[in-house]
């Protein structure tokens, strides 16, 4: 399996067939498991085998199929599936950090990620230093001999800034710090984060992995030792595990993820190119455009621009007029869906940030994050062009 392409692994990795030899993966909707004898129960609690389960909060056959499949795609030794993307982010950090530890993080983060780092971790005595993720000198200055971990989004939400995974990982590993990468915008399709130096990769499976707006889910990926000895004890006792039903949907989502993400990325490039020629917009941000300041890094790190386009309408009033005029794309706060979704981050996903923090991150009142779906690209361009025309 290790020699196969991601597209093949997404269909076949991690399959566990029952005695019935089913083609589609089985859904094990059970919270507990039966033991033949009391001695068997005792032995399993002492040491469970790969196909031995105790309780759904600890593990489940369907969930395990999802963990093994996504780990194979990412090139990780193991994974732990979580109830949501934020359960994965908080679990990866909380499971390894203690009072007095130091973390360096990029400043450009999803609102909930910023909350976990700036409010939750600091509440328990973890020191967090925020830096401009695009500035390697800032990383070098902030990382100390006692730094325990670095955390960043490989492509930031919503302003699409990239962090050089390989370069930051080298700086972190020089002091034995763990590199944790939130890789949602890169997707498992375009990601080589572990090969580029990341120790731990987290995903919100709610996004491109499901890709159809059905369920919440997340996953933490890394070495088997980190996942089973650090993450698993924390997650199984704090209750952030994935449900078997969600795992089954996400397993099936993985089968078509590459086809969906590549089609969405192709359309995103066409949309970004069209919008960049629209004089009514203040700016258009897309890593696939040569005008993006980190275009070369995007091509070398992901070999693609991704499925998200951001553009600035100039003001909140103009942005709202544009949003309300859309006929195909919907207004929501998710992304990575088969339906195109337009989001005004300043008033939704990042509204809890202070106004000066949003300004520093480039999250202006008129900024729109546009998640490109599976609709026809020409239809989406026409929809956006018409909506921009009423601003």
Set down the secondary structure blueprint.
Layout: H1 6-12, H2 38-46, H3 61-74, E1 78-82, H4 85-94, E2 102-106, H5 111-123, E3 127-131, H6 136-142, E4 147-153, H7 165-173, E5 178-182, H8 187-190, E6 200-204, E7 218-222, H9 224-238, H10 244-275, E8 283-285, H11 295-301, E9 308-312, H12 316-325, E10 330-331, E11 341-343, H13 355-361, E12 367-371, H14 377-388
Parallel strand pairs: 2-3, 2-4, 4-5, 5-6, 10-11
Antiparallel strand pairs: 1-7, 6-7, 8-9, 9-12, 11-12
Helix pairs in contact: 1-3, 1-10, 3-10, 4-5, 10-14, 12-14
How does this model look, in words?
The chain is α/β, with parallel strands linked by helices and 391 residues long. 40% of the residues lie in helices and 14% in strands. It has 2 domains: 6-253, Aspartate Aminotransferase, domain 2, CATH 3.40.640.10; 258-388, Aspartate Aminotransferase, domain 1. It has a 7-stranded mixed beta sheet with strand order 1-7-6-5-4-2-3, sandwiched between helices. The chain is globular and about 75 Å long. The termini are far apart. The model has no long low-confidence stretch (mean pLDDT 96).
